[in-house]
């Protein structure tokens, strides 16, 4: 490549698909929760407007040539899309009639997201293999779409007022339909995709409105195209984009995909009459580069090349990214530079991390730093010399990281290498273990338990904030936590639960809490990433080889057990979840890291056992979500996932009962792996899916014990004893009752004590009733 004269227009432009929404101080969370607590719509809208302006200014000042709009959301962008298309479930229409006031529109929006006292919210589920949750639109054969384009139009106008070139980002029609579900009461066998012909004209109207409002380009996101799709679905993709492209007055269309390779969908999109494609070239999607070359590229089209990893936090390898861009130049009419996906999935800015070791901070790139990487690469496309300095310092930092003692720990590596097949097997088969556990624990049939956490009250969080600020001493903090544990143990005894928990008050988060205590991890103080709605997490960063410094949970567990004669369940987060909800290393296979975490947890499990804890739960809620999007990659993932769990848990004696917990439905794809985990007891989400999982486990002849969650803890509703009895009875009808447990769906940390006390009492009553043979 040769240097271009500076007078020539730049070959490439820089852009992104989305930017974090919350603001530097999570202003959005406070504004939204403030509105829910009785604040005004004006206050909420003004904070939101200010944040949008701030984001656009940041993008502009960073040098981003074309900014995204409509990527902002008060709650979730799929919910926004459902509202934009008028796909509003009947129950929310009726519960919150929309009048002329702006408040009613907002109230209905939040009713769909969170439910009301009378109506259930829309279902929430994971956004592909990320830890972000979206709301699942509900459609039926009678759904009539009705366009309300006010949101993208307003956001477009805001950007144009700032003098910016803006590209509205809209969830595409195929993804919208495939991410939706049949509403309850829809015709048997109804498939949302069957509405595509009714939906497409609404997208046509939208395109026209955006065009009239001055949009030169629009981005239609079709991430479902990176999952396995049938030829029939791909034919629909072809037809719908042919129809949209035939619209008279419209912006140019770029179809975006991310997270995996496009596979067969690549050719379909390449042949479609849309003007551009945005493609992910990072991680498992790197294959797109070869695939694109193999089909001869997309001559005549714009390519937005996602060469910066939008889901991880490591400094990019600029040299490699630049080489990819140069290769791509020959495969498209024009190549623009971007991150692989919306920057929604990474924290805002490394500069908001004052406590981070500066050396480590220099290896990281959060959303704001990724903008710089994108802009640098964009300049580099015109001539490598223009970014020679950046390439050199980037290369140097990457070398320093790869050879840093913070990264490699030979002792850990030696222990990981020494792991043998025996370490991955319990001493005896389940039947023998169950016998010994029965004798030791003396539990009734249908034992009752909870999943671990009890309400994280404001007082608990205040104490922790005080500890951080130094206004609360470690001793005072520990006493506050012990007080909370006493309260939680007392409550459970009073209610009459069989297997108790300590309540997890000392944990800020089930992953971050452990990350803060393990070697090889670093935690952030401001690295918030939206999980759902107004809830955020701070995923820790796995930097180097992982090992345990000292026992992490044993003191709390021992204390809780000392307060009661009933068994107290020890509570740990499993290796897969410790990876899935963190930013992982990009310099070694995940299987390696998982094995190291498995070894660290194994030590903790054995220490808990020695401390007299007879029941130990190792949570793996992320096991399903981490399943690779493409089926071909699944077996190898499941192998290391199961092995790391076994490594953590299989060292205990027969009479120690191992539990695990998963709370995201859709277990069909991993039933085999669930069996292989060989946990004595597994608790699962079941209430929201009408206990279907029990049928599945029964037909898979699940050999160990199961606690299908009978209480959907995601909703503030208190289920009655009768309702819980019915759910339990339905489980008993399908699965051997001597291997069933009674428990909620998930932890209770987001619930209030009022609901918890009432529902758990109902749960105990229901279990008693079903034990006695009642209905
Ligand atoms: N990592 C992870 N991913 C997950 C889950 C999970 O539990 N963990 N569960 C599912 C998602 N569910 C979730 C449920 C709840 C929250 C949640 O409640 N988040 C809290 C933050 C939790 C936290 O980190 N709390 C810290 C810090 C709290 C905080 O914001 N403190 C204030 C001060 C608070 C005060 O003075 O009262 C501050 O630092 O500014 C603590 O307790 O110590 C929030 O958004 O508000 C997140 C996800 C799937 N993915
Ligand atoms: C998201 S799974 C949560 C499991 C954890 N033990 C809790 O009860 O909160
Ligand atoms: Zn859970």
Automatic annotation (TrEMBL):
<feature type="region of interest" description="Disordered">
    <location>
        <begin position="1"/>
        <end position="23"/>
    </location>
</feature>
<protein>
    <recommendedName>
        <fullName>5-methyltetrahydropteroyltriglutamate--homocysteine methyltransferase</fullName>
        <ecNumber>2.1.1.14</ecNumber>
    </recommendedName>
</protein>
<feature type="binding site">
    <location>
        <begin position="26"/>
        <end position="29"/>
    </location>
    <ligand>
        <name>5-methyltetrahydropteroyltri-L-glutamate</name>
    </ligand>
</feature>
<dbReference type="InterPro" id="IPR002629">
    <property type="entry name" value="Met_Synth_C/arc"/>
</dbReference>
<keyword id="KW-0486">Methionine biosynthesis</keyword>
<dbReference type="Pfam" id="PF08267">
    <property type="entry name" value="Meth_synt_1"/>
</dbReference>
<dbReference type="GO" id="GO:0032259">
    <property type="term" value="P:methylation"/>
</dbReference>
<feature type="binding site">
    <location>
        <position position="504"/>
    </location>
    <ligand>
        <name>L-methionine</name>
    </ligand>
</feature>
<feature type="active site" description="Proton donor">
    <location>
        <position position="714"/>
    </location>
</feature>
<feature type="binding site">
    <location>
        <begin position="451"/>
        <end position="453"/>
    </location>
    <ligand>
        <name>L-homocysteine</name>
    </ligand>
</feature>
<feature type="binding site">
    <location>
        <begin position="451"/>
        <end position="453"/>
    </location>
    <ligand>
        <name>L-methionine</name>
    </ligand>
</feature>
<dbReference type="GO" id="GO:0009086">
    <property type="term" value="P:methionine biosynthetic process"/>
</dbReference>
<feature type="binding site">
    <location>
        <position position="126"/>
    </location>
    <ligand>
        <name>5-methyltetrahydropteroyltri-L-glutamate</name>
    </ligand>
</feature>
<keyword id="KW-0808">Transferase</keyword>
<feature type="binding site">
    <location>
        <position position="661"/>
    </location>
    <ligand>
        <name>Zn(2+) 1</name>
    </ligand>
</feature>
<dbReference type="GO" id="GO:0003871">
    <property type="term" value="F:5-methyltetrahydropteroyltriglutamate-homocysteine S-methyltransferase activity"/>
</dbReference>
<feature type="binding site">
    <location>
        <position position="663"/>
    </location>
    <ligand>
        <name>Zn(2+)</name>
    </ligand>
</feature>
<feature type="binding site">
    <location>
        <position position="29"/>
    </location>
    <ligand>
        <name>5-methyltetrahydropteroyltri-L-glutamate</name>
    </ligand>
</feature>
<dbReference type="InterPro" id="IPR038071">
    <property type="entry name" value="UROD/MetE-like_sf"/>
</dbReference>
<feature type="binding site">
    <location>
        <position position="746"/>
    </location>
    <ligand>
        <name>Zn(2+) 1</name>
    </ligand>
</feature>
<feature type="binding site">
    <location>
        <position position="685"/>
    </location>
    <ligand>
        <name>Zn(2+)</name>
    </ligand>
</feature>
<keyword id="KW-0489">Methyltransferase</keyword>
<keyword id="KW-0028">Amino-acid biosynthesis</keyword>
<comment type="function">
    <text>Catalyzes the transfer of a methyl group from 5-methyltetrahydrofolate to homocysteine resulting in methionine formation.</text>
</comment>
<comment type="similarity">
    <text>Belongs to the vitamin-B12 independent methionine synthase family.</text>
</comment>
<dbReference type="GO" id="GO:0008270">
    <property type="term" value="F:zinc ion binding"/>
</dbReference>
<feature type="binding site">
    <location>
        <position position="619"/>
    </location>
    <ligand>
        <name>L-homocysteine</name>
    </ligand>
</feature>
<feature type="binding site">
    <location>
        <position position="663"/>
    </location>
    <ligand>
        <name>Zn(2+) 1</name>
    </ligand>
</feature>
<feature type="binding site">
    <location>
        <position position="619"/>
    </location>
    <ligand>
        <name>L-methionine</name>
    </ligand>
</feature>
<feature type="binding site">
    <location>
        <position position="661"/>
    </location>
    <ligand>
        <name>Zn(2+)</name>
    </ligand>
</feature>
<keyword id="KW-0479">Metal-binding</keyword>
<keyword id="KW-0677">Repeat</keyword>
<feature type="domain" description="Cobalamin-independent methionine synthase MetE N-terminal">
    <location>
        <begin position="14"/>
        <end position="329"/>
    </location>
</feature>
<dbReference type="Pfam" id="PF01717">
    <property type="entry name" value="Meth_synt_2"/>
</dbReference>
<feature type="binding site">
    <location>
        <position position="685"/>
    </location>
    <ligand>
        <name>Zn(2+) 1</name>
    </ligand>
</feature>
<feature type="binding site">
    <location>
        <position position="581"/>
    </location>
    <ligand>
        <name>5-methyltetrahydropteroyltri-L-glutamate</name>
    </ligand>
</feature>
<comment type="pathway">
    <text>Amino-acid biosynthesis; L-methionine biosynthesis via de novo pathway; L-methionine from L-homocysteine (MetE route): step 1/1.</text>
</comment>
<keyword id="KW-0862">Zinc</keyword>
<feature type="compositionally biased region" description="Polar residues">
    <location>
        <begin position="1"/>
        <end position="16"/>
    </location>
</feature>
<feature type="binding site">
    <location>
        <position position="625"/>
    </location>
    <ligand>
        <name>5-methyltetrahydropteroyltri-L-glutamate</name>
    </ligand>
</feature>
<feature type="binding site">
    <location>
        <position position="746"/>
    </location>
    <ligand>
        <name>Zn(2+)</name>
    </ligand>
</feature>
<dbReference type="InterPro" id="IPR006276">
    <property type="entry name" value="Cobalamin-indep_Met_synthase"/>
</dbReference>
């Amino acid at each position: 490549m040769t240097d271009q004269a500076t007078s020539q227009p730049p070959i490439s432009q820089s852009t992104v698909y989305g930017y974090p929404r919350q603001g530097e101080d999570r202003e959005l969370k406070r504004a939204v929760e403030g509105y829910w607590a009785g604040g005004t719509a004006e206050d909420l809208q003004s904070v939101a407007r200010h944040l949008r302006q701030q984001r656009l200014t940041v993008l502009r000042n960073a040098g981003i040539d074309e900014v995204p709009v409509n990527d902002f959301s008060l709650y979730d962008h799929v919910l926004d899309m459902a509202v934009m298309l008028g796909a509003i479930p009947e129950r929310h229409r009726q519960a919150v009639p929309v009048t002329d006031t702006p408040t009613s529109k907002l109230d209905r929006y939040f009713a769909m997201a969170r439910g009301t006292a009378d109506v259930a919210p829309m279902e929430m589920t994971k956004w592909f293999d990320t830890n972000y949750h979206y709301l699942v639109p509900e459609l039926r054969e009678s759904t009539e779409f009705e366009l309300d384009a006010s949101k993208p139009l307003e956001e477009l106008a805001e950007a144009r007022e700032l003098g910016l070139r803006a590209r509205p980002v809209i969830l595409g029609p195929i993804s919208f339909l495939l991410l939706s579900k049949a509403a309850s009461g829809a015709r048997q066998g109804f498939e949302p995709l069957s509405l595509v012909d009714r939906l497409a004209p609404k997208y046509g109207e939208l395109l026209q409105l955006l065009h009239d409002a001055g949009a030169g380009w629009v981005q239609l996101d079709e991430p479902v195209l990176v999952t396995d799709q049938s030829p029939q679905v791909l034919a629909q993709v072809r037809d719908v984009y042919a129809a949209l492209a035939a619209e008279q007055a419209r912006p140019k269309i770029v179809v975006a995909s991310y997270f995996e390779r496009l596979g067969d969908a690549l050719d379909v999109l390449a042949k479609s009459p849309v003007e551009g494609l945005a493609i992910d070239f990072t991680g498992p999607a790197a294959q797109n580069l070869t695939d694109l070359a193999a089909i001869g590229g997309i001559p005549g089209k714009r390519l937005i090349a996602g060469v910066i990893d939008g889901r991880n936090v490591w400094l990019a390898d600029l040299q490699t990214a630049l080489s990819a861009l140069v290769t791509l130049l020959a495969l498209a009419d024009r190549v623009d530079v971007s991150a692989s996906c919306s920057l929604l999935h990474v924290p805002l800015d490394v500069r908001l991390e004052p406590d981070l070791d500066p050396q480590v901070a220099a290896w990281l790139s959060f959303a704001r730093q990724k903008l710089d990487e994108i802009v640098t690469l964009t300049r580099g496309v015109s001539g490598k010399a223009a970014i020679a300095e950046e390439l050199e310092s980037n290369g140097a930092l990457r070398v320093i990281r790869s050879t840093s003692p913070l990264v490699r720990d030979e002792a850990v590596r030696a222990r990981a290498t020494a792991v043998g097949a025996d370490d991955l097997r319990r001493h005896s088969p389940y039947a023998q273990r169950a016998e010994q556990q029965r004798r030791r624990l003396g539990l009734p049939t249908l034992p009752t338990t909870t999943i671990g956490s009890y309400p994280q009250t404001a007082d608990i969080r205040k104490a922790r904030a005080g500890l951080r600020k130094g206004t609360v001493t470690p001793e005072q903090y520990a006493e506050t936590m012990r007080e909370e544990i006493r309260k939680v143990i007392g409550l459970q005894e009073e209610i009459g639960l069989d297997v108790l928990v300590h309540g997890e008050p000392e944990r800020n988060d089930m992953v971050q809490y452990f990350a803060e205590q393990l070697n090889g991890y670093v935690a952030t103080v401001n690295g918030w990433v939206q999980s759902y709605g107004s809830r955020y997490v701070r995923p820790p960063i796995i930097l180097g080889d992982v090992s345990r410094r000292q026992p992490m949970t044993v003191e709390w567990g021992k204390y809780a057990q000392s307060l009661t004669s009933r068994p107290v369940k020890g509570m740990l987060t499993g290796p897969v979840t410790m990876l899935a909800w963190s930013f992982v290393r990009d310099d070694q296979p995940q299987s390696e890291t998982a094995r190291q975490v498995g070894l660290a947890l194994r030590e903790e499990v054995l220490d808990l056992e020695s401390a007299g804890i007879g029941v130990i739960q190792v949570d793996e809620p992320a096991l399903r979500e981490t399943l690779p999007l493409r089926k071909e990659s699944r077996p190898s993932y499941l192998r290391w996932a199961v092995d790391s769990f076994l490594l953590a848990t299989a060292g205990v004696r027969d009479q120690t009962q191992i539990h695990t917990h998963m709370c995201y439905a859709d277990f069909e794809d991993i039933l085999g792996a669930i069996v292989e985990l060989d946990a004595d007891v597994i608790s699962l989400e079941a209430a929201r899916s009408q206990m279907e999982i029990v049928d599945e486990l029964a037909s898979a002849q699940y050999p160990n014990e199961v606690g299908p969650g009978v209480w959907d803890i995601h909703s503030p509703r208190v289920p009655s004893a009768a309702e819980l009895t019915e759910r339990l009875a339905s489980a008993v009808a399908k699965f051997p009752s001597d291997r069933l447990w009674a428990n909620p769906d998930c932890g209770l940390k987001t619930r209030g004590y009022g609901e918890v006390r009432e529902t758990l009492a109902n749960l105990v009553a229901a279990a008693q009733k079903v034990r006695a043979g009642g209905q």
